[in-house]
Amino acid sequence: MYPIHHTFGPHATIGFALRSWCLLFQPWKWRNGSARDRLRTTLQQSFGGDVFLFSSGRESLAALFRVMKILNGEEVIVQAYTCVVVPNAIHAAGGVPVYVDVDGDTLNLDVDDVERKITPRTRAVIAQHTFGIPADLKRLRKLCDERKIILIEDCAHTLPDDPASPIARTGEYAIFSFGRDKAISGVTGGAVISRKTDVSAALKESELHAGNLPHSVIARYLLYPLIYRKARALYLIGLGRIYLAMCKKLRLLIPIVTPEEKKGNMILRLQKMPNACAALALYSLKQLPVTNAHRRELTKFYRDECTKYGWNVIPGIETNVPLQKFPLFFKNADGIRGCLKNENIFLDDGWTGCNICPRGTDTDALGYTQEGDCLGVQILSLPTHQNMSLKQAKRLILSLTTHAG
Q1: The pairing of beta strand 325-329 with beta strand 379-383
Q2: Residue ranges per domain, the chain?
């Protein structure tokens, strides 16, 4: 059986892999070409504002903070269930991340606690849209307007295909990530949408003077979907794990989060999004209606099955939302994941067993002190990506009934 997974090339469909394969043999298109401007134009037409492209979502956020000219000691509010790259970008810009409670109904910012944590030093609030569950943008927008604070939307986990959706259209700025397991993928890359003229002018200069990723790095990004498509096939004969270990030893796979980033360190060096990765992101963006329809189908299926078995479903999950993954709460989430590995089901997505993710992050370096229980310890997420079929989803639920009760 093919493995069920979150991270084995979730966007690496046949069409995506073929485009990556073709680009491998066109190195003159790796850094520069028309794809970057076409991606920029498509995003502008979809969400408005001015669009600027960098080599990752975290660099896009860092570029924004740099041109916002955050002063030493100024605060940026983030939720206390997030990825390490977010507070890293704040620290790299000289700011201070202020962690607020998470609303258990949505896994997003608790707006009441946001209001309590605002001080005269607060410069911005980041709304995360965790796993594609919409943050309370209406209340956040009202609060930020009243307190004259900037609202930044982190849209790494969601990209709406509904033109009436407020997501990516409510904040002064929106950040997109086109990483390997995000809402859409270019294997790497990121974008800032700006609705402020002065900041847009500064971001334009930042992108213009950004460096280029080495050709060797771009080549490894282009190999990524091909490596994981082969790995999934090799898991059928028990060789997938060995093959991936070999690829890692040969440094063909680039880590999503580096050891230095886990220590709270980020070098503020901006690089352009490679044209080849922009081409893949553009293909992924054009597939968005199909991708989101598939995510909605699996979201509805999981929700119905969870209701049937009495599993704890987060109230904020609606069946019409295209979740990036479907979160459940189980007291023994780690134990369940361990048992499922024996059935070729791999549900460790980097957002488990911790509040500042991934596991092993130096939270002291990030100025984070955990209060109360660790939210991430109980979360077990189910895949919704294009390579996760409904048949596999049924198999996953059947396995869960055995191990989770």
Answers
A1: antiparallel
A2: 14-208, 288-403
CA 30, 18, 221, 186 torsion-angle sign: positive
- Rounded CA gap, 159 and 289, in Å? 10
Which CATH number does 14-208 carry?
3.40.640.10
The model's pLDDT over 14-41, given as tens digits with 9 standing for 90+, comes to: 999 999 999 999 999 999 999 999 999 9
For residues 197 and 363, give the distance between their C-alpha atoms in angstroms, rounded to a whole number: 36
Question: Of the CATH numbers 1.10.8.10, 3.30.70.270, 3.90.1150.10, 3.40.50.300, which one belongs to the domain with range 288-403?
Answer: 3.90.1150.10
* Tens-place pLDDT, residues 158-184: 999 999 999 999 999 999 999 999 999
Give CA 384 to chain center in angstroms. Answer: 14
CA atoms of 161 and 166, how far apart (whole Å): 11
What's 190-218 look like in SS3?
Answer: EEEEECCHHHHHHHHHHHHCCECCCHHHH
Tell me: pLDDT of 316 over 90: no
